[in-house]
Amino acid sequence: MSTIALEVRDLVKSFSLDGATINAVDHVSFQVKSGEFVALVGPSGSGKTTMLSILAALLTPTSGQVLIDGQDLAQMNEKQRVKLRREKIGFTFQSNNLIPFLSARENVEFMLRLNGRLDHASRIRSDELLARLGLSDRLHNLPAQMSGGQQQRVAIARALIHNPAVVLADEPTASLDTERAYQVVETFANLIHENERAGIIVTHDLRMCQYVDRVLQMQDGKLVRIYEDKKEIIELARGTIH
Amino acid sequence: MKNIFLATYLAIKEVVRNKGRFLLVALVIALITLLVLFIAALGEGLANGNRQYVANLDAQLVVFLEKSDYSISSSRLETNTVKSVRRVDGVADAGAIYTSSTEIVSLPEPLKVSMLGAEPGRPGMPPILDGREFRGGEAREAVIDRNVALRTDIQVGDTIQIRSTQGTEDEFFELKIVGLVEGQSYFFQPTIFVPAATWEKIRPQSESELTSDTPYPNIIAVKLTDPLQTEAMSARLTEKVTNIEVADIDTTINNIPGYSAQQGTVQTQGVFTLLIGILVIGGFFQIQILQKVPQIGVLKAIGSSNGVVGLSAVIQIIFVTALGVGIGGGLTYLFSLGFPPTIPLVFNGARSLIAIALLLAIGPFGGMVSIIYAVRIEPLKALRLG
């Protein structure tokens, strides 16, 4: 039975702009189960990235609750948040994803080092994961020696290697061509499902939604619609519904 | 401990994978090190050349003529003052010192030297390393210091010829070298020691001075029974002996003409070079950190603590600074081998060690702003929100 890995309860994030208060995230609630891959979509300024930053324990909400693996972010101090990010969250970012002076293998192993879990067995697992992502011949390459797609795949391996409860991806296909983008998201989805992690991808490219289990649509900070039916999701991805 | 390992890992990986960039900075630090060490050595060498004899005196106090402002060349004491000083309670011994300069001409290249009159076995006359003390009276015997020996082929047993201008005539005198003492440079010149009577006879002097055969000492070096009682003894000497003023060795050195101004100039140069070093290192690391903002953001977003990020920057700065100082120290040593003894460079002084310690400190000091900046970078920089 799938457990709830991430729960958002009545979340609000307000910013002051020229004396006016703007709710970048406006009373949003949802849950993501382990093994579920969810897309967070919406136009620019809809609050997707603000939401992701709060889920990643990088930004403090104005009100509401975020529970990751049962732990309430609001109750944590900065040190505990750093620990949570290290242990319970996996990340891929839009760009500048990898540490430029570490090879592909070292970038993935770095998450294990951070968590004090680098040993012979975890090294083998890291190499296997990179091989699974088609990077077995790139283990010793630095990020600058790899294509954007290869870098994103290394970032996916890094996000998953330490078995986090939640994996967050911020526009991971933004700098990739369509073919590469499909490959990356499909692989990501497969790994999320296989490893029973909760995955959230923020994307403006609705075509990528064909690989997810659920789509959360945001607009003006509000969660305006949730697509759960696979048929509806495929139609959304094909652009037949908006 | 885990943070230290992680920070060291990140720091070393970055340096190894960006060897060229870090080596370039290390070479800039090496050049600054070279400059700072040479300035320090020059300062030490110049100071040595000026004060070596006074600093090495086997004495705690120096007696000057009253109102001479502790200037050796301005002080000219009465001949019986030294006896009066010796009689004061608490004085272990006292020796009259007569200063002048001359030129050794019996060499392919004439050598200007300080010619000091001193009393064998008394304060003011350094211990003999080779040969023997000169005989008193009118004996034309002299003792050379090691600086004379290093710059010339003169050895114990040789006879040298000196030229002194007396009145309007150049007079030439022969001196037999009977002993060698440690380096006793005075007024930037190597030194020869002669008996007081000989000194009076052969020193350069004006027409009016030629009529007198009496040598008047410039100063008296005073060795105390209790070397710690300098202040009390200074007061007692001034009270018991007329027409004198008394200074300790440090005051005497600082009043050698030009000494303080020269040392101040050299130290200012050294300080400015260190400041330039701080700016260069600080600027480099600040630019590097600015270029690494997204990378540091990612590091923090994935769970690296501020401690790891800050410590990594500190380790890099220390490593690059130490490498630069090491290369600079090695280059300085190699260059120093090629310098002739006439250039006053002394590398074995405390000054060089202080310079190295300061150079090692300027790295972390210069990089402090960039370290603080790195620690303050928000992990949100990894996301577009940053």
Description:
The complex is a heterodimer of chains A (242) and B (386). Chain A is an alpha/beta fold and 242 residues long. Chain A has 7 helices and 10 strands. Chain A has a domain at 4-95 and 165-238: P-loop containing nucleotide triphosphate hydrolases (Rossmann fold, 3-Layer(aba) Sandwich), CATH 3.40.50. Chain A has helices at 48-55, 78-88, 104-114, 120-132, 148-160, 178-195, 230-238, and strands at 4-17, 20-33, 37-41, 63-68, 71-72, 89-92, 166-170, 198-202, 214-219, 222-227. In chain A, the strands form 2 sheets. A 6-stranded mixed β-sheet of chain A has the order 6-7-8-3-9-10, with helices on both faces. Chain A is globular and about 50 Å long. The model of chain A has no long low-confidence stretch (mean pLDDT 91). Chain B folds into 2 domains: 2-51 and 260-382, no CATH class; 79-242, no CATH class. Chain B contains 12 helices and 10 strands. Chain B has a 6-stranded mixed β-barrel. The A-B interface holds A 49-50, 52-53, 56, 58-59, 79, 82-83, 85-87, 89, 91, 93-102, 106, 110-111, 113-116, 142, 158, 170-171 and B 2, 6, 9-10, 13-14, 16-18, 294-295, 297-305, 378-380, 382-385.
Topology:
The complex is a heterodimer of chains A (242) and B (386).
Chain A: E1 4-17, E2 20-33, E3 37-41, H1 48-55, E4 63-68, E5 71-72, H2 78-88, E6 89-92, H3 104-114, H4 120-132, H5 148-160, E7 166-170, H6 178-195, E8 198-202, E9 214-219, E10 222-227, H7 230-238
Parallel strand pairs in A: 3-8, 3-9, 6-7, 7-8
Antiparallel strand pairs in A: 1-2, 1-4, 4-5, 9-10
Helix pairs in contact in A: 3-4, 3-5, 5-6
Chain B: H1 2-17, H2 19-55, E1 61-65, H3 81-87, E2 91-104, E3 111-117, E4 128-131, E5 141-145, H4 146-151, E6 159-166, E7 169-181, E8 191-194, H5 196-202, E9 219-224, H6 230-240, E10 244-248, H7 249-254, H8 259-291, H9 293-301, H10 306-337, H11 350-366, H12 368-376
Parallel strand pairs in B: 3-8, 5-7
Antiparallel strand pairs in B: 1-9, 1-10, 2-3, 2-6, 2-9, 4-7, 5-8, 6-7
